[in-house]
Fold:
Amino acid sequence: MKLIGIGDSVVDYYQDQGLIYPGGNAFNVGVLAKRNGAQACAYLGMIGNDKAADLIIHAASLEEIDMTRVRRVFGPTGEAVVSLNEEGDRVFVGTNRGKRVQSLLKLQLTEEDLDYIRTYDLIHTSVNSDIEHELIRLAGQPISYDFSTPKRWTRAYLEQVCPYLTYAFFSGSEMELEDIERLIEEVHGWGVQVVGVTRGAQSAIFSEKGERFEQSPMPAQVVDTMGAGDSFIAGFLVSYHDHQDMRKALLQAAQSAAQTCQTYGAFGYGTKK
Structure:
């Protein structure tokens, strides 16, 4: 399986360490899919011309992520400011979202981009990627989408995006079970084949065309939960796309997330800011 992440790449700045780590949902899923055995992975998006962008490019090179179609723009790369609580859970305390190049400019895909994207089996993107306007042009391929927490989407937004998707992922640790069930049914109703809701330390709830599956977290020595959800998605997609076996894919997803929780950052490479 070959996967391309489109949209968001940032650095996560850990204030207590004085370090930045490469991150961003679309970029993370590409890197972590490659670590989970994907044949090839790529990232297409915008980064700045600063030290943060240099780190993202360096990490991509070491992880064998194709960056051929990346736009490097004059301006700041996205940055999230992060603190950790005593349980190792990530807490976002700030962002430069209004000043980053991704917010100041809009990613416009060219015909050459689309030809390049078609060489990959699966597209992954997210609510953070600001490419809703391009989904109709990407809809000929399977698309995976991370909607993050309920604070990031509305019913109108789901109705806009879901008809183009094969996979829809949500972070639902603060959602009640009845709300999760209602969400799953509604998203299936817009044609999405697989809907997944991760719930932190609780079992993830997934649905394949209406059939429910649950997956408990794997035991791990947790030092940092940053990127655990992205790692779960990456492990799931690599296994499910190749085998169409939900239980096998969810097990790989949980193992992938547990591994990620044992290192700082979504996948390491911390460097001085």
Summary: The first strand starts at residue 2 and ends at 7. Residues 228-243 form the longest helix (16 residues). The mean pLDDT is 95. DSSP finds nine helices and 15 strands in the chain.
